[in-house]
Amino acid sequence: MKQYTLANAPMVNQIRLCPGETQDELVAYCKERNILLEAYSPLGTGQIFKVPEMQVLAEKYQKSIAQICIRWSLQNGFLPLPKSVTAERIRENMDVFGFELSDEDVRLIAGLTGCVGLSKDPDTINW
Ligand SMILES: NC(=O)c1ccc[n+]([C@@H]2O[C@H](COP(=O)([O-])OP(=O)(O)OC[C@H]3O[C@@H](n4cnc5c(N)ncnc54)[C@H](OP(=O)(O)O)[C@@H]3O)[C@@H](O)[C@H]2O)c1
Questions:
Q1: Domain annotation covers residue 119
Q2: Contact 37, 74 (CB under 8 A)
Q3: CA 7 to ligand 1 centroid distance, Å
Q4: b/e 10-48 (16+ beta carbons within 10 angstroms → b)
Q5: Strands (E), 51-122
Q6: 47 alpha carbon to ligand 1 midpoint, in Å?
Q7: Distance between CA atoms of residues 54 and 65, nearest Å
Q8: Domain for residue 116, yes or no?
Q9: What is the domain extent for residue 83?
Q10: How many domains, the chain?
Q11: Average of pLDDT values for 15-39?
């Protein structure tokens, strides 16, 4: 992997990051180098709404699954980029600063491995 110094390190890396798809090795690499992780598809392109554990947490915190997911992303230090074409949902997705997930629940969500479709490995995909 390319070695970065303070002089040439990228400031931001936009990658697919959501519960079930946490890219731990790359996240650790970027965090060690203070590279901001922009989390695209932070709702798993909508797949996260089918995950039963997320429904349980939504009920526990009295928030929507989208809000739990976005809050989890923020508490991990990511910059989530949720997309919606629905004004009400866009407002809902911004309303994530009045509550906090417990450390235990942050870990629980991080452990939901494989619950959304995994990205294809660019080293093995047939382009
Ligand atoms: N760099 C890259 O290669 C790359 C690749 C993919 C995406 N992105 C970026 O990431 C952004 C988001 O990714 P994404 O569109 O794949 O997925 P996403 O934000 O994870 O999920 C979007 C889906 O969730 C639904 N949704 C959003 N908020 C909701 C809410 N509060 N309640 C219920 N459903 C909700 C949306 O429906 P509605 O729209 O119908 O409300 C849509 O179906 C994109 O806009 C794009 O800019 C970057």
A1: no
A2: no
A3: 33
A4: eeeeebbbbbbbbbeeebeebeeeebebebbbbbbeebb
A5: 79-81
A6: 10
A7: 6
A8: no
A9: 12-110
A10: 1
A11: 94
Residue with tokens 């407002």: 91
Angle CA(78)–CA(85)–CA(57) in degrees, nearest 5?
Answer: 50
CA atoms within 13 A on the CB side of 82: 27
- Give the distance (Å) from ligand 1 centre to CA of residue 115: 16
pTM (2 decimals)? Answer: 0.91
The percent of the chain in helix, strand and coil, each rounded to the nearest 5, is 40, 10, 45
Give the span between the Cα atoms of 80 and 69, in whole angstroms. 9
Indicate whether 92 belongs to any domain.
Answer: yes
Q: Which of 43, 64, 90, 94 to mutate to test the pocket of ligand 1 (most atoms within 8 A of CB)?
A: 43
CA of 87 to the centre of ligand 1 (A): 13
C-beta 80 within 6 A of ligand 1 = no
Residue 26 lies in a domain: yes
Model confidence pLDDT, tens digit, residues 42-91: 999 999 999 999 999 999 999 999 999 999 999 999 999 999 999 999 99
